[in-house]
Amino acid sequence: MSLIDRAEARRKSALAAMDPSEQAALGQYFTPYQAALIIAGLPRMPEVRTIRVLDPGAGSGMLTAALVDRIRAMNPDAAIDVIAVEVDEALRSALRETLSDIEALGNVQTTLVGEDFLTWALSSDERFDLVIQNPPYAKLPTGSAQQNLLRSAGIDVPNIYAAFLALGARLLAKDGQQVAITPRSWMNGTYYSRFRREFVETVGIDGIHTFESRSKVFGDTGVLQEAIVVSVTRGQRPETVKVYTSHDHRDDASLRSVAYDDVVTADFIHVPATEKDAEAVTWMTRHAHHTLADLGLTVSTGRVVDFRSRDMLHHEQIEGASPMVNASHIRNGQTRHPIGAKKPEWFHTAPEVASKLLVPAGAYVLIKRFSAKEERRRVSAGVWQSDDAVAFDNKLNYVHQSGAGLELSIARGLAVYLNSSRLDDYFRVFSGHTQVNATDLRQMRFPSLQQLRELAPVDTTSQHMIDTAVENVLTAAEIAA
Questions:
Q1: Which of 170, 288, 361, 406 could form a disulfide with 411 if both were Cys (CB 3.0 to 4.6 A apart)?
Q2: 250 pairs with which residues across the strands?
Q3: pLDDT tens-digit readout, 329-387
Q4: In Å, how far are 12, 148, 151, 315 from 145, measured between CA atoms?
Q5: 65 and 37 Cβ atoms separated by less than 8 Å
Q6: How far apart are CA 269 and CA 368, in angstroms?
Q7: Phi, psi (deg, nearest 5) at residue 102
């Protein structure tokens, strides 16, 4: 068996022996064989006599084995110095075996650090040419010792994996490279905004590998997060980013070179994996220039959480009840109520409670927060208009103006735009998840108010008419200019 084959056998053995609840608590998702080869294949080979390698949260040593194997093949004369950090004592036996295998190759020195990486990294003055990692995925509880420790070091992140990325970047030598497989969630949204800004100020993104399949990269671990591999270099900002795309970790990847500014922006990181993705970004950048805030509009999440409000929800309309609107009421760009849904369609409670949960009469744009598997669109919107107060389900976002309804023509035009293929294509590049969060909508770009009014008459049940109108209205402004 090869070095990689033996490491893979240890990975599978360690995975089989783990308690799933303990694994989840530690956020451990071991790197499969083929994924390890992809990750180890992204960095350039450092032109130094001794290559210093760091593997934070090394697990059974799969990533280190893959990287050392590649270094030996490409630069057989280089000495290699590896530090593998692993806090889980149950994994250290397998890790020691892998490190022993690596040392047996000759001209390789390894050190196993049996500590928590966060603590070790914050006190270390080591610097590395290559940092390779599959960091743990677990939320940082507010006020926890780990969060306080990180904040005292100027690292403010909601998840441990982002802390690993930040610390790995700090431990790079000049021109050192870090490559990591993580969820894509850090690339947009306010939760990671501070981390994202500081990260791209410290390192330049030079390589990204995306997977079309959301579920197969870590198939034997049960992970459904959308994983992405990112390679960065400390102190460099390349002109282009190499973007690799494969169906999953087992397939050959396609490669595109994308201008750096088309990937990394002040607000978020695009991942234009295909020419279609790149065209979606270019079109949106050229034609849509306003945020909702610029337009004087606000987006909020529906106020009624069904499982907390069971005694307020009713299947039949009773005296004094208000409409209870949920995602099932939005179909083909329109909002219809009632529809005889399985879920309660009416809301009624005491006036003092209702005043906090109901939204005033008026016109609003509703956007589904979650898309069903069978839906072809990520973004699905409709207009709600009524002369009475209404309850919106928590699984909806709604656009309003300072808590009140919108001008009807603005609402209708906005629904047309949100249901357009141009917007949907862009959202898939902009966002790495199927949810449509209020935060995402606040960061998106929209037409002007006048352009929205021009879109208002369009039939939202016809995708062709929506797309034609959006194309005509938004490109007309460029032609006029």
A1: 406
A2: none
A3: 998 888 999 999 889 999 999 999 999 999 999 999 999 998 765 567 889 999 999 99
A4: 32, 5, 10, 47
A5: no
A6: 23
A7: -65, -45
CA–CA separation, 189 and 41 (whole Å): 29
Spatial distance between the Cα atoms of 154 and 328, rounded to a whole number of angstroms = 44
Closest CA to 135 of 75, 170, 95, 179: 179
- Which one of 3.40.640.10, 3.30.565.10, 3.90.220.20, 3.40.50.300 gives the CATH number of domain 298-480? 3.90.220.20
The distance from CA 178 to its chain's CA centroid, rounded to whole angstroms, is: 19
CATH superfamily of this structure's domain 3-273? Vaccinia Virus protein VP39 (3.40.50.150)
* Amino acid 274: pLDDT: 81
Q: How many H-runs (helices) and E-runs (strands) does the chain carry?
A: 16, 19
What's residue 417's pLDDT? 98
* 123 neighbors 93 (Cβ within 8 angstroms): no
List pLDDT tens digits, range 91-124: 899 999 999 999 999 999 999 999 999 999 999 9
Structure tokens at 447: 């037409």
Q: Could you report the per-residue pLDDT of 396-424, keeping only the tens digit for each?
A: 999 999 999 999 999 999 999 999 999 99
Alpha carbon distance 217, 249 (integer Å):
6
Q: What is the C-alpha to C-alpha distance for residues 194 and 98, in angstroms, rounded to an integer?
A: 37
Cis peptide before 457 (omega within 30 of 0): no
Q: Is 106 exposed, middle or buried (0-12, 13-18, 19+ CB in 10 A)?
A: exposed
Q: How buried is residue 281: exposed, middle or buried, by Cβ count under 10 Å (0-12/13-18/19+)?
A: buried
Alpha helices in 347-448 (DSSP H): 351-357, 408-418, 421-430, 438-443
Q: Domain segments of the chain: what residues?
A: 3-273, 298-480
How big is the chain by its Cα radius of gyration, in Å? Answer: 25
